[in-house]
Amino acid sequence: MNLFMTIMTPIILLAFGVSLVYYLVIFPREKDERRSRILQIASEKAYLVLVFSIAVCILLGRIPSLSFEGETFKNGIVLCIAISGIVYSGITVYYNRKI
After folding, report:
1. Whole-model pTM?
2. What's the CA gap between 58 and 65, in Å, rounded?
3. What is the distance between the alpha carbons of residues 13 and 9, in angstroms, rounded to a whole number?
4. pLDDT tens digits, one per residue of 3-13
5. Lowest mean pLDDT among 10-19, 23-32, 45-54, 60-69
6. Contact at 8 Å (CB) between 72 and 2?
């Protein structure tokens, strides 16, 4: 599983870096209802993804035939957080172009 995190760490850092650059450069700077609505929608969806994915990790940890514990469980939680951040960024980009 160490190879998994060796590959995932640069991908996660790249995704968060790209989302940070997008937020600082392209996202609207003026504080208006549009910006607030976009961030609210993105936060709601990303939170739902995070809760659902952590629940799946916990359920997988409860199945005795799977060895989803310890380091593997920690990697799963990190992956859940990363997926939630990527969903947040993706929804922000999508709604920024749509609205």
Report:
1. 0.81
2. 14
3. 6
4. 677 887 888 88
5. 23-32
6. no
- Residue 42: other Cβ atoms inside 10 A: 20
What type of residue is 1? M
Nearest C-alpha neighbor of 70 from the set 83, 80, 61: 61
Residue carrying structure tokens 């929804």: 91
Look at the alpha carbons of 6, 12, 15, 16 in this order and tell me if their dihedral is positive or negative: negative
Torsion of CA 89, 14, 80, 61, to 10 degrees: 170
End-to-end CA distance of the chain: 41
Q: Which residues contact 82 (CB under 8 A, 6 or more apart)?
A: 8, 12, 15
Asked whether 46 and 85 are in contact (CB, 8 A), the reply is yes
Q: Are 96 and 28 in contact (CB under 8 A)?
A: yes
What are the structure tokens assigned to 55, written together? 């629940």
Tell how far CA 53 is from the center of its chain.
10
